[in-house]
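Example record

The entry below shows one chain as it appears in the dataset: sequence first, then structure tokens.
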Amino acid sequence: MTATMTDAPPPAAPKAATASQRSGRSLAQILLLVAGGLLLLAAVRMITGSQDLDSTGQVSAALGLAVPIGLAGLAGLWSERSGVVNIGLEGMMILGTFGAGWIGWQTNPWLGLLAGIAFGVLGGLVHAVATVTFGVDHIVSGVAINLLALGATQYLAKLFFTNGAAANAGGNPKQSPPVDSLPDVTLPGLSDGLQSLEKHHWFLVSDIAGILGGLVTHLSVITILAVVLFVASWWLLWRTPFGLRLRSCGENPTAAESLGVNVYSYKYAAVAISGGLAGLGGAFLALVTSHTYLEGQTGGRGYIGLAAMIFGNWRPGGLAMGAGLFGYSDALQLRNGGTTVHALLLLLVVLLVALGAWKLYRKAMVQGLTSLVMAVLVLVWYLVTDSVPSDFVGATPYVVTLLVLSLSAQRLRMPKADGMRYRKGQGK
């Protein structure tokens, strides 16, 4: 007797992962985290009486401080997604500040903005020539660009700002003459209404009003442009064939070349865009923050932008959160000093307790107990003091950056070929 086989339905094709599944958190989880953060911030404000924790002025200042860091981080993201480590972001920002200040005072701030971007692109192309064409170590090239940009701008400032019309207009070896302001945007009815709600100091309602008020009051056009660039970068890199090819150069350039991708061209384009974004961040400092080029005004923001990019796991959304966190902590210590920073200690206690409980739940006993011990120490510090010493207040943004990076280090995944030398045809 011949054995007969029963007809069986073909196996179902595996379902494609949704965007939220690929990112690790669903939209509902993200909204829940945001709501929890707002409730916690509102509770800390009510308990401590520190009304400036989420006021309109605080949020507006935080946004202004976050923009250049976010643009520097976005610049690093473009470069590293193509496989080129860009430590030279600080130098490209310095070039952007000089270009914006130099051209801006002679013409108008709009041409100064374009000049800042162009100077950053120039720095990016130098980095691309060194790393992509000549195979120089990416770290060495980036450090060299930082030193070269600093020395070149100091020399050019002495050359162009110390005599003639520039000197008469207020220029000197360390700064350019003042530059006219770029316009800003305020939504009059909405801004006034939100500020009115904020003044009542109601639980959660006033907190939300203060945060939203800071997002619609005196927004620089560069801030609006930065938001557009973040959205556009996400769409280009993750939703277009161009972005797929560029990211393949950072993951496996040999495989990308075998599929017909011109790896050199994509790396050059990515690093040039990276330089332009860093130059735009520098132009923001020169045209919006200070209305002039100042020697040393970048203040290490290029490096902090790299830290924000790493915290964001080489993605625009996480990068924006990291830049916002640093900008918020920096604005807090600049505007309010030790008293308001002292209120953050209570917020830190709650976060450390939550982290310790989560680690203990995941059977990570050492990390969980360490977090709980730190929570107790910070709580004691909060209870026995009324203010944070001024020396520590100035270090608040950097402490926050180190803390966040240390807590997020376990989930990071950089592009596989990031920082590796590549030669055309090496896979043959």
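Notes for this example: The radius of gyration is 24 Å. The chain has a mean pLDDT of 85.
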